[in-house]
Specification:
109 residues; alpha+beta; five-stranded antiparallel beta sheet; 5 strands; 21% helix; 29% strand; globular
């Protein structure tokens, strides 16, 4: 369940574009966004490796909580958002969780 209350859903604006390496050394291009309530989000645009990406927004607070608690992150525990900040169904892509972990590490380092 997301930590972002529904009263804080609002359009997401890009505030940073960057890239990092995945565990398998492919380059992940990502964006960090912020909504009007200063909730931070991240999304992966593409990978130059063989893995496919799920180009939707994820709340950084949700990801940080999942990884900090030592939770075994599975796709069904990820909660994406669309550009307007509305929740979407969970991704089916198995690369998403590993790619997001690499990006989150890069964002908070």
């Amino acid at each position: 369940m997301t930590l972002v209350p529904s009263n804080l859903y609002s359009p997401i604006q890009i505030v940073k574009k960057s890239s990092c390496l995945s565990k398998r050394k492919s380059t992940l291009n990502y964006e960090v966004g912020k909504n009007s309530h200063d909730v931070l989000f991240v999304r992966i645009n593409n990978s130059n490796g063989g893995g496919s990406t799920f180009n939707k927004w994820f709340a950084i607070c949700d990801l940080a909580q999942l990884y900090a608690n030592g939770t075994v992150v599975v796709s069904s525990s990820l909660e994406p958002f669309d550009q307007v900040g509305n929740p979407l169904p969970q991704p089916k892509n198995n690369n998403t969780k590993a790619f997001l972990k690499a990006v989150l590490h890069d964002v908070i380092k």
